[in-house]
Write a structure and sequence with these properties.
single chain
């Protein structure tokens, strides 16, 4: 009898909860950088809204990568998607920070 899963080139499924925890921890770790920097310099002046927007951008990008990468079978495809998401994140971040598009 043939297997119902077929012969696909997909990686074995990983627990989604574990990946979401990784995204949350990475987001928190990245947000610690400006938080600590504010203690040592007046050049970094973030308020609660800045941290909230950064958390949504970083966490949303990480979540998008996790959900899309789970559906892709080839490592090359996952790298391309990751690079595109990173480029989009950096473009949005730069636009919000200094308005590069205007």
């Amino acid at each position: 009898m043939a297997s119902m899963t077929g012969n696909h080139n997909f990686p074995p499924p990983r627990p989604l909860g574990r990946e979401l925890r990784r995204v949350a921890l990475a987001t928190a770790a990245l947000l610690l950088i400006p938080l600590v920097a504010m203690r040592f310099t007046d050049e970094v002046k973030w308020d609660g809204l800045d941290f909230a927007v950064a958390a949504m951008l970083l966490g949303g990008t990480g979540l998008a990568y996790v959900l899309v990468a789970r559906r892709l079978g080839q490592r090359r495809q996952r790298i391309i998607v990751g690079a595109l998401l990173l480029a989009a994140l950096l473009l949005v971040w730069a636009q919000l920070a200094v308005g590069i598009l205007n």
